[in-house]
């Protein structure tokens, strides 16, 4: 009896665990608000990046984010053909100075940047970056789209999600800014995008959401520069393998046709045939 009762209690407990109330290790505020799923064109499997948007997004990165965030995995050469011409990229690289290799006396000199150089960081090191940002480290943005749960949706929501005022009852520690999408809601980065902050050369109105969209698409490119190529390769793979699939179906049918259409006939001996007759039939077969 006691065993049965224990069984019932355990079953009920199991059912509650599976179907009962959700249990969270963290509160929604600690986890951050889930970002909206936006209908990004460039993430669709048959679409590519909008390269005009990448160009605008890089402009936003350069004019706004680059004063705090590095983009250390991106060399100038990768911009060529994706968002600018060779000459534009060269001119951009030459705006910065890089160390030369040591000369015969072991001296390191400065030279203008080349296409093979990487985009420089705004700070000398992490300590300098923290010192300039109230102790918070602005992370490198090269792989940010892959590094955060929610990817493009999260970063877009983060950039556009600063309310005018923190909601009533929210406590915002000193030096932090309220943003519901940031885990913990207190983020060291203040709102950086405001309508009309940059001037797009193609005349696109630079609203907050337009700049956020462009810079996020650009950051998606920096994290997955191979995406366009990868999708094109996917199409080729589908084209080739579907021909191979058709061919293999045909070959299979061809090889199996004689086996599948074979007819096996067996005539059982008539019941009551005398043994002598059967022997005679067998002898005939053997011949
Ligand atoms: C004034 C300096 C500053 C500027 C300008 C700036 N940021 Fe930040 N950003 C920071 C700091 C500091 C942090 C670290 C925040 C923290 O950990 O609380 C941060 C964090 C981030 C994060 C990571 C959030 C996370 O989940 O950890 C992203 C993404 C980001 N910034 C994107 C951008 C983009 C895109 C721009 C340009 C449109 C930009 N930032 C401009 C200072 C800046």
UniProtKB/TrEMBL annotation:
Primary location recorded for the protein, binned into one broad class: mitochondrion
Q: Which residue ranges does the record assign to the Cytochrome c domain? A: 52-159
Q: Which residues form a coiled coil?
A: none
What EC number(s) would the UniProt record show? 7.1.1.8
Keyword annotations for this protein? Electron transport, Heme, Iron, Membrane, Metal-binding, Mitochondrion, Mitochondrion inner membrane, Respiratory chain, Translocase, Transmembrane, Transmembrane helix, Transport
Which amino acids does the record list as binding heme c?
A: 65, 68-69, 189
Q: Where is the composition biased (Acidic residues)?
A: 94-107
Annotated region Disordered: the residues are 94-122
GO MF terms listed in the record are: heme binding; metal ion binding; quinol-cytochrome-c reductase activity
Quote a single Gene Ontology cellular component term: mitochondrial inner membrane
Sequence similarity? Belongs to the cytochrome c family.
Q: What is this protein called?
A: quinol--cytochrome-c reductase
- Please report the organism this UniProt entry assigns to the protein: Aulographum hederae CBS 113979
């Amino acid at each position: 009896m006691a065993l049965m009762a224990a069984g019932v209690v355990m079953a009920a407990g199991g059912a509650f665990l599976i179907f009962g109330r959700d249990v969270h290790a963290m509160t929604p505020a600690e986890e951050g608000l889930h970002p909206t799923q936006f209908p990004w064109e460039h993430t669709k499997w048959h679409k590519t990046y909008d390269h005009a948007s990448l160009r605008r997004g890089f402009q936003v990165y350069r004019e706004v984010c680059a004063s705090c965030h590095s983009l250390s995995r991106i060399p100038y050469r990768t911009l060529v053909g994706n968002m600018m011409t060779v000459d534009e990229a060269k001119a951009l690289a030459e705006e910065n100075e890089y160390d030369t290799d040591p000369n015969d006396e072991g001296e390191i000199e400065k030279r203008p940047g080349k296409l093979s150089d990487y985009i420089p960081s705004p700070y000398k090191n992490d300590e300098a970056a923290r010192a300039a940002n109230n102790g918070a480290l602005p992370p490198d943005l090269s792989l940010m789209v892959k590094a955060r749960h929610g990817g493009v949706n999260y970063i877009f929501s983060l950039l556009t999600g600063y309310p005018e005022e923190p909601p009533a009852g929210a406590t915002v520690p000193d030096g932090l800014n309220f943003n519901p999408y940031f885990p913990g809601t207190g983020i060291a980065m203040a709102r950086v995008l405001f309508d009309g902050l940059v001037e797009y050369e193609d005349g696109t109105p630079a609203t907050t959401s337009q700049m956020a969209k462009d810079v996020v698409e650009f950051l998606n490119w920096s994290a997955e520069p191979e995406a366009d190529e990868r999708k094109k390769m996917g199409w080729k793979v589908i084209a080739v393998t579907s021909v191979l699939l058709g061919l293999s179906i045909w070959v299979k049918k061809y090889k199996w046709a004689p086996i599948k259409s074979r007819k096996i006939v067996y005539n059982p001996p008539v019941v009551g045939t005398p043994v002598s007759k059967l022997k005679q039939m067998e002898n005939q077969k053997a011949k």
